[in-house]
Amino acid sequence: MRVDIVEHGPRTILAIEGHGTWRVHRDTGQVEVIEPAPDAQAAALALEGPVRLHALAEHGVHVLHASAIAARDGRLLALTAPSGVGKSTFAARAWALGRERAADDLLPVTRAADGVFVARPHFAQPKLPEDQQYPIDAPEERPLAALIRLERGDVAIWTPLSARAAMDLALRSTVATRVYSKAALAAHLGFCQRFGAAVGEGRIACGVLTVPYRPEAIESAVRETLAVLDSALEG
In 3D, which of 152, 203, 150 has the Cα closest to residue 173? Predict the structure, then answer.
């Protein structure tokens, strides 16, 4: 959907084609309706999509197009991938093998006051049934252990990325930056730069994880890949 943005100080107007016009106040998070959506469904799509993503960005929370599973120490692993590679399938198979799944497609992340990068998994996953959503009573924030780009190949391999490549991956993996205000865009760039710096300092991992392409034996491929990943992150 097309979104036109007009900024007036701490207020930003989002004109969402076919879904109404909304005003969001940066300081309070208050949302006002300027032009109503044509129906309740269109209003819900606007509020759950561009309006919410804009409001989160204004407060330093950026949503990655990523699945997420838990590492063995309980921290989260954000899994990104080009379309068709199968990040959701990988996360689902990892879940079937006993790994906690915290996100299927959308993962909000931020940088805590102590500089640690954390995920906020309490975010509805559109493709998951209700009984597979992140539990309501689970922690609001979880430390992020790694940002991982999945690729297909012949054998399972972990390839670390440089600080610059990690920053680029964080930039590319963030959804809906087109609805960010100028201030949020600048803050997002700083966020990604700090993420790259943290990778360079060894405080968080970032890399490419090659998953063996075995359509007839997906579970064994995921099991093998998880073993390689665990060894790389814990070594």
Answer: 150
